[in-house]
Amino acid sequence: MIEMTTKREKIPTSGGVPVTDELINQLATEAEAGFNVTALQRRGGRRPVGSGPGEVFPVRLDSDLRAALGRRAEQDHVSASEVVRQALTSWLQAA
Known about the structure:
By secondary structure, this protein is mainly alpha-helical. The chain has a domain at 63-94.
């Protein structure tokens, strides 16, 4: 009698790439040969906002204001956060 399984066997992945014995052997060979440390250094991340790294500041918006913010961001081809930063900067400079 053949047994049917209803659950698929999960194949482990790394960044969406299946981790196979072949991949493990390839990575082990590369590691044994040594790595170019500068190539492994992380680049990227969030870009600075203004003079330095940004700080998250939560704010509550009603649905009408949030919708208007979304429309403006789409119109200007920027994020909603960028629209808020521009508006706040403009308002504070006018004061």
